[in-house]
Amino acid sequence: MRARLVVLSAVILALLSPLPAMAQAPGSTKVVLRNPDVAKWAGRNNFLSTSASEFTCRPLACPAPSKVTAKISASPTRSPDRQALAKYASQTIPAAVEQANLNVASSLAPGRKIERLSSTATEIRGYPSISQEMRFVGGQEPVYMSKVTMFVKSALVDIASYSPSRETARRNRDLFVGAMQVEDVPIRQ
């Protein structure tokens, strides 16, 4: 009886002990979005996914109410074409905003509008990116969104910051972009 208890305990301990770190496969990218300041930001992950997070600025910790959302998914390519990104930023995003405004106008909540302030292809932290800023009007006060979509090797990272202040939205986005950790294993040639 005692021997069974010892064996059972050993099996349980073996199952509960941390597993050794698995090596990343060549060509894979591990991106971790960390909370840059846990005293200032309350964060949570999407219940069904570890690749989506939402952070809300705690009361009185930011100059204006603020929220940052982050999503990591598979990138369609490790090296996007810069001209294709520029075309996407200058043509596809404005067309999508126009379509969204048409949809809102015909919805049950007319009077709301999305204004595109900017959308450009750029490079952030050395990675090809699309940066965009929008203003949502029609509520009590306008809300600004400052968003960056980064092609981080084999990962596609979206970080969007929302605030009634355009400058605060931009600053919060940059704070979370700076807190991002990247570990890339290059493809063997």
Automatic annotation (TrEMBL):
Residues 1-23 form the signal peptide. It comes from Bradyrhizobium lablabi. This is Uncharacterized protein. It comes from the Bacteria. Keywords: Signal.
